[in-house]
Design brief:
By secondary structure, the protein is α/β, with parallel strands linked by helices. The protein is built from nine helices and 15 strands. The strands form three sheets. It has a seven-stranded parallel β-sheet, sandwiched between helices. The protein binds flavin-adenine dinucleotide (FAD).
Amino acid sequence: MNTQKKQIWIFGDYRNYFQNRVTLQLLAKARELAQKINADVCVLVMGHNTQEYVDEYIAHGADIVHSFDHKELAVYKVDKFVHLTAQLAHQYQPEIFLIGGTSFGHEYAPRVAKRLQTGLTADCVALSINDKQILVQTAPAFGGNLLAEIITPDHRPQMATVRPGTFQELPHDYERKGSVIQHDYLANPSKERIRWIRSEREPQTEQSLEKASVVICGGRGMQSKKKFKKLFDLARLICGEVGATRPVIYSRWTSPETLVGQAGKQVAPQILFSFGISGAIQHTAAISDAKFIIAINKNPHATIMKMADVAIVSDANQVCSALIKAFKKRIRI
Ligand SMILES: Cc1cc2nc3c(=O)[nH]c(=O)nc-3n(C[C@H](O)[C@H](O)[C@H](O)COP(=O)(O)OP(=O)(O)OC[C@H]3O[C@@H](n4cnc5c(N)ncnc54)[C@H](O)[C@@H]3O)c2cc1C
C-alpha cells in the first residue's frame, strides 16, 4: 500500500528508555523536517507489551506508530527486526528513515539500507531539507576534518543514523493525538541464524553523560589506568560523569560508553573538566556546547588550552588529587 502522505520514519529504540533518549531527540528533529515536506512523523515499534512506549512516542511528536507487538519480538534479534522493517518499508515507502546512532543502530541500520537498496549516512550532526525537498545529511568526513553534506537523490528512504545528544527532545504533550497501526507478525520463513541465549543489563548507576551538568573528561595525559580511576573519585564528589578520549578507551582504562567525540557521545555540561587531553577536533567537536571549560595540561600550547575558559598548566594527576582533597575537606568526608 502506498499512503497518500509522505512518511518520515524513526526507529523506536525504547531499551533503557529513561536514559536512552535518542528516539525522542529524533522525533523532535523529524517534526521540524516533516513541516518542510508535508509528511507524517512515524515511529516503528517492535517488541512485546510496548503500549507504554507507543503512548510516549505520540506524546513526543509521532503522528503514526507502526507497531509489531508479539512475544516472539520480546528479545531483539537483528535478522528478525531487519526483515520486518524491510517488509513494512516496501509497503509504506517512507521518504526518510532515522535511526539512533547507538551500537544497536549501527548494527541494524546498514542491514536495513542494504535490503532496501538505498544509501545510509552514519552519525549525522545535522539534518535539513533543501529546496528540492531532499534531506541534506551532514556528517563528519575524512577523519572529522571536514563536514560533508550528503544527499540520497534517487533512492528511498533517505536513511541516516544520529548519535544520542545531537538534537533536543520536545517536551511531553499528553494531549497529542496520534494513530497506531498494528501489524501482524509473520515469522521470517528463512531459518533464523541467531539464537538468543540470555541477556544481561549493564549496571547503570550513573546518570547519562549527555545530560550531566558536570563532565570530567580524561585523556592519555592521565598516564595510567590507576591514575585515570581517580577521575571517578572526583566525579562522585561533585556529582559529575566521567568521559574519555579514544586513546583511553583503546588502552582499556575505562569502558567504550564513556567515549566523548565524533565516534562517541556529545556532551553539553555547565562545567567540563579536561584532564590531559590535547584537543583533537574529533574530541572537541563533541564538547563545544559545554558552558565553561577548565583544561589541565602540562603543555600550555595544547589546542584544548585555547578553547578553555580556565587553562591550568600543570600535571593532570596532581591537579586531580588536589581537587579531590579540597572537595573532601569542603564536604567533610
Ligand atoms: C575517524 C576518527 C575518529 C575519532 N574519534 C574520536 C572520538 O570520538 N573521541 C576522541 O577523543 N578521539 C577520537 N579520535 C582520536 C583523536 O584524533 C585524538 O587522537 C584523540 O582525541 C587524542 O586523545 P588525547 O587527547 O587523550 O591524547 P593525546 O593527543 O596524546 O594528548 C595527550 C595530552 O595530554 C597532555 N599530557 C601528557 N602528560 C600529561 C600530564 N602528566 N599532565 C597533564 N597533561 C599531560 C599532553 O600534553 C597532550 O596534550 C578519532 C580519530 C579518528 C581518525
